[in-house]
Amino acid sequence: MNYCRENYRSRPVSRDLPGNYLHVGLLALFFSIALYLFTLAPTVIWGDSANFALKVKSLDMGYSADSHPLFIVLGKAFSCLPFEPAYSLNLLSALTASATVFLVYLIVFGITQSKISAVVGALALCVSHAFWLHAVMAEVYGLNAAFVAAVVLCLLKWRKNPDRHAPLYAAALLSGLGLTNHRIILVDLIGMTVFVLVTDPKIIRKGRALLSVFFSFLAGSLLLVFIIVQNMLNRPLTVVADTFSAEGYKEAVVKYSPKVLEEMGIYFSYLFYQFPLAGFALGFAGAVALFRKDIKLALLFSLLIIMNGLLLFKLGPSYGHSKYTFYISAYMVFSILIGCGFFSLQNYLEQRRGFAGKLSPAAAFSVIFLPVLLYNVTPTLTKKLNIDLLNARQVPYRDNEKYFLNPSKRGYDGAERYAREAFETASAGSVIIADYTPYTVLRYLQDIKGVRSDVLLVRIMGHGGIVPKILSEHSGKRDIYLADIGIPRSYRVRYLQKKYDIVRQGVLHKVVPKETPAYPAN
Questions:
Q1: For 369-419, what is each residue's pLDDT tens digit?
Q2: What is d(CA 224, CA 432) in angstroms, rounded to the nearest whole number?
Q3: 3-state helix/strand/coil string of 160-172
Q4: Are 13 and 383 in contact (CB under 8 A)?
Q5: Measured between alpha carbons, how far is 304 from 191 in angstroms, rounded to an integer?
Q6: CB-based contacts of 445: which residues, under 8 Å, 6+ apart?
């Protein structure tokens, strides 16, 4: 496990945690599992999480940038558990996120040979906001981070003996698997490829090894390859290629955004919220220490963070406030740097024995427990100060500050409560028009729990061009409801108000034709 020991001074055993390194790592793993299970969402969650449950039921696996076939396949296996489907998928996210925490522990220990530094790095990730938030609901980002961490671990093992290519093939296989889960891992492959080339420049002349790497990657991505080939049989290749390469996102990446600097500031704000104070400082300290002692490894970690950031800065604010989810793999890398920074801090404090015994535990405590305190205090504080950090839409049974700023979803059933009340309100055979966020939850209750199959659910997208069509087809024949009017453009509220009254009924908004004024006969 010692990948770069020659670059670090050995630490006294008295300054480290007792016990076998693997046993200590398993304790960190069990801690993360326990935390995520305790704060796990008990049922369906808004948006993507509900949509994943629907896709798992039908085994709907696409090849577009927002398709995640590997997660769907794993979700299908987890749906066999004796739980509600949504809870089973939430559990899948918790376990994959916990696996990432364990992998970070192994990476930091391999670099530093310090169990306590490895624990600090791993638990810093465990309690970081975005990572924790997506570990307690059905999401793909914990699994993506797990693949990135696993590839890094393989590359570090290969680095010990570059002539032994098995770990390199394993890294390629895992990268291919990661691609079937989320396309964003392609950005991480840039830094990984550079690391391989600077570690063993002669690799480009080893044709057999390169061919084996390619086929290992192909083997890992076979599921995605199969789906693409299957779709090529009934649609043009150009359409398949454009969809696979993220369609409209390409223009956003190439096009200059005048708000790039603003995005960079937001990025560092996000980073600070993940790892407040001590964690933030130790991460940068770890980066500096690595550049001084192991520049190749520092280059790998820097590229994994920088390439992730550069791509997403270009997308600009128009891609929404949930864009921070794409940064999660970079946060994972930063947690490795936190572990390295803590190790450097301990080495520094060893020279000042009077402070070492006090500052090291204080720093570790701050890295692990300060974020938990911050996430519980921030929602209340922002409300009292009347500060809207989120600018998020209001939906029934969702306290935005608590929902988004505190990762814990223990006991949260607001999405299901909304859907049940909506179906209780809707009349027999009625139509509910809904945008993505409420639609997925309503569809989950209807398709998976068998609630109100008589109600026609219609999803609107973009500017709601389908709304006039639905009204012309069903007005006067069925009662029509809007799931929400929090996004007026999507629901064409101004258009509707010309001919209809929008009457609030429970959590829904009923569309009622305006009465035509009666004119007296001449």
A1: 999 999 999 999 988 888 887 778 888 999 989 999 999 999 999 999 999
A2: 35
A3: HCCCCCHHHHHHH
A4: no
A5: 5
A6: 44, 416, 419, 420, 423, 451, 452
